[in-house]
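Here we describe the complex-level prediction in full. Unlike the single-chain runs in Section 2.1, the two entities below were treated as one system.
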Amino acid sequence: AQKVTQAQTEISVVEKEDVTLDCVYETRDTTYYLFWYKQPPSGELVFLIRRNSFDEQNEISGRYSWNFQKSTSSFNFTITASQVVDSAVYFCALSEASGTYKYIFGTGTRLKVLA
Amino acid sequence: NAGVTQTPKFQVLKTGQSMTLQCAQDMNHEYMSWYRQDPGMGLRLIHYSVGAGITDQGEVPNGYNVSRSTTEDFPLRLLSAAPSQTSVYFCASSYSGHNYGYTFGSGTRLTVV
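The structure predicted for the assembly as a whole is:
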């Protein structure tokens, strides 16, 4: 069965600090997809990144970077030089290529960036 | 492009009432889903559809019905509202299914009293 664990319920940092949000997943499939979404205080959900299981290259987009490690079943998200606008709930999600077209979300990590 | 449009944004129901949450997308996406978001539980899949005329159950389907008569619309029906259905509901669509990022609607906050 697929499962996503975001053990950090809430993190607080001071502006300009770096912060890493952890995501650990479980799946029996060899082909799967991992995602990160951002939910700012306004409530909408915004897609940030998608990674497939065959691509373990780290990705950097501005102040955001993602570290995918199959050996530890982790897909961690780092924000460098955090800003107040980064304050949000961040969700990690997993979908398996086989069968059921289901997309499973973690419980989210609330990030508070203090000025 | 409006993206994914959900109506209403807020709704209060009495126990036992029924209602339909509307969801429409204008991106010609085949895949659409309904999620509910509850504190500490993330987003849980209620129902999903891989195309017009095709729907299936997610993790928490009880008490909800869906239909997909067109590519654009995917309404969610609450048959007999219960307080346990108090939640924020999100509709989402995707170009090609569960292996692509979803575009989400702005959500419907439902309270059942």
